[in-house]
UniProtKB/TrEMBL annotation:
Active site feature: E265
Subunit structure: Homotetramer.
Native species: Zhouia amylolytica AD3
Protein family per UniProt: Belongs to the aldehyde dehydrogenase family.
Assigned keywords, A-Z: NAD, Oxidoreductase
Entry EC number(s): 1.2.1.3
Name of the protein in its database record: aldehyde dehydrogenase (NAD(+))
InterPro entries with a match to the protein in the record: Ald_DH/histidinol_DH (IPR016161), Ald_DH_C (IPR016163), Ald_DH_CS_GLU (IPR029510), Ald_DH_N (IPR016162), Aldehyde_DH_dom (IPR015590), ALDH7A1-like (IPR044638)
Enzyme class label: oxidoreductase
Domain Aldehyde dehydrogenase stretches: 31-494
GO molecular function terms attached to this record: aldehyde dehydrogenase (NAD+) activity
Length: 513
């Protein structure tokens, strides 16, 4: 098969011969069973890692805990400088890492590069943030007293990430956590362990160049059972988890039962509302990229289009025409628009969803199907499909991680479209296409979209790192990345200092001895 420089990328990232899956930095060990990483691009075995055992994990936590005691003593701007150096390392390895993301996960090479760009951007953001971990000061009700608040590091942050953004989501969490003074233990998805190994190798080099101890960046590998070692562990005060709603509920209960903190970024069921005053050219590009980009496997992928009846037929025709232009194939080949889904289970979920929407009374507009033959040997390439459906269908209420788009109509005012858009359990991303100011403001208002992300004249996917990323309802409520998302990685302390010669009590209480 045409190589697209994969062997070279694997070599430069040091992922091929390693055959271990647990690391505290430059040290690698692992005694667990083997995990194979097979590429959905060509079905080939890329390499193996070993999973983390309970003993391996104990070793990791102890090392991380010891590292935390040193790391938190380094001034935050100095920690920021180390994160800056990691950003520089990523700039240097952007191409091989982007390629590995594309090859192991199946997204297009452009999107693989885009993902590494998000990592670079969050490092820049975190560097600036390292000088801005501000608390407030407030006036005391007592004379000659001062009150203020400080943010202190939490300790060990456990990161559980998903296959679809195998490296960026880790970096959003870890870059912020590091400048906040925390150390991290990362469990990547068992479907994309090698991108995890590659990132660990890159950060290990930076930490070594700075004479930092082992344990600041740790990697563990395995399935949910390895994740459970962290979620049940009191020594890990914060768990940040990205993945399905089903997984999020299990994590939240385990972490909640020990009153730990969790940051959850779970499923979406994202819609674009297309009003009579939409710019249709922008709408089609936004909707098609949102629905088929990353083969429909972003949390922010567009699942539903809610179209005003007056333009419904026009939009429908334009979409069907646009889908005819889509080229499906090897994502490393930049001529293709759509790559494979992650594995055969994902193909099954895609097929089940298409069967289900027909059973429930939907109408297929663009036929789906699994591709076979040359170039499609992995069995993971599916045709992006469109179905006309009703919002209340069970299958429309679910998030299917595949390129399936549901079309529905609304009539009358934009309020009716909002009811449909908000009428799902998830609340991640949302968008409206309109040039009408009233509609746009209505959509953004407190009676508008109930999602964590609400865009005007932009699709549902492709958020910038500078904003807080996450959503409401069953999406889990967590916020990662920009804005003040850093606060969850720290503990807040309120300090009151008395510099008088008296001891006046708060609330005016008298207590004389
Ligand atoms: C995800 O799908 O988990 O907004 C993250 C986007 C990307 C991140 C998606 N910046 O599509």
């Amino acid at each position: 098969a045409t190589d697209f420089g994969i062997e070279e990328a694997l070599k430069s990232l040091g992922v091929k011969e390693l055959n271990a899956g647990t690391s505290t930095g430059s040290k690698w060990f692992s005694n667990g069973s083997e995990i194979e990483s097979n590429s959905p691009v060509d079905g080939q075995l890329i390499a193996k890692v070993t999973s983390t055992t309970k003993e391996d994990y104990e070793n990791v936590v102890k090392t991380a805990h010891a590292a935390f005691k040193e790391w938190r003593m380094l001034p935050a701007p100095k920690r920021g400088d180390i994160v800056r150096q990691f950003g520089d390392k990523l700039r240097e390895f952007k191409e091989p890492l982007g390629k590995l993301v594309s090859y192991e996960m199946g997204k297009s090479y452009q999107e693989g590069l885009g993902e590494v760009q998000e990592m670079i951007d969050i490092c820049d953001f975190a560097l600036g943030l390292s000088r801005q971990l501000h608390g407030l000061t407030m006036h005391s009700e007592r004379p000659l007293h001062r009150m203020y608040e400080q943010y202190h590091p939490l300790g060990i942050v456990g990161i559980i990430s998903a296959f679809n953004f195998p490296v960026a989501v880790w970096s959003w969490n870890t870059a912020l956590a590091w400048v906040c003074g925390d150390v991290c233990i990362w469990k990547p998805s068992e479907k994309t362990p090698l991108t995890g190994v590659a990132c660990q190798n890159l950060i290990a080099e930076v930490l070594k160049e700075n004479d930092m101890p082992e344990g600041i960046s740790c990697l563990i590998n395995g399935d949910y059972k390895v994740g459970e070692l962290m979620t049940h562990d009191n020594r890990v005060p914060l768990i940040s988890a990205t993945g399905s709603i089903r997984m999020g509920k299990i994590v939240a209960q385990a972490v909640g039962a020990r009153l730990g903190k969790s940051l959850l970024e779970l499923g979406g069921n994202n819609a674009i509302i297309v009003t009579p005053e939409a710019d249709l050219k922008m709408t089609i590009i936004g909707a098609v990229f949102g629905a088929v980009g990353t083969a429909g496997q972003r949390c922010t992928s567009t699942r539903r289009l809610i179209i005003h009846e007056s333009i419904y037929d026009t939009v429908k025709k334009k979409l069907v025409d646009a889908y005819k232009q889509l080229r499906i194939g090897n994502p490393l080949d930049e001529n293709n628009h759509v790559g494979p889904v992650i594995d055969k289970d994902a193909v099954k979920n895609y097929q089940n969803a298409l069967n289900k929407v027909v059973e429930e009374g939907g109408n297929i507009l663009v036929e789906g199907g699994v591709l076979e033959g040359e170039g499609y040997e992995s069995g993971c390439y599916v045709k992006p499909a469109i179905a006309e459906a009703q919002n209340h269908f069970d299958i429309v209420q679910e998030e299917t991680f595949a390129p399936i788009l549901y079309l529905m109509k609304y009539s009358g005012d934009v309020v009716n479209a909002l009811e449909l858009q908000n009428g799902v359990k998830q609340g991640l991303s949302s968008a409206i296409m309109t040039t009408n100011l009233r509609e746009a403001e209505q959509f953004l208002s407190h009676s508008g979209s109930d999602c964590g992300i609400a865009n005007v004249n932009i699709g549902t996917s492709g958020a910038e790192i500078g904003g807080a990323f996450g959503g409401e309802k069953e999406t889990g409520g967590g916020r990662e990345s920009g804005s003040d998302a850093w606060k969850v990685y720290m503990r807040r302390q309120t300090n009151t200092i008395n510099y008088s010669t008296e001891l006046p009590l708060a609330q005016g209480i008298k207590f004389d001895l």
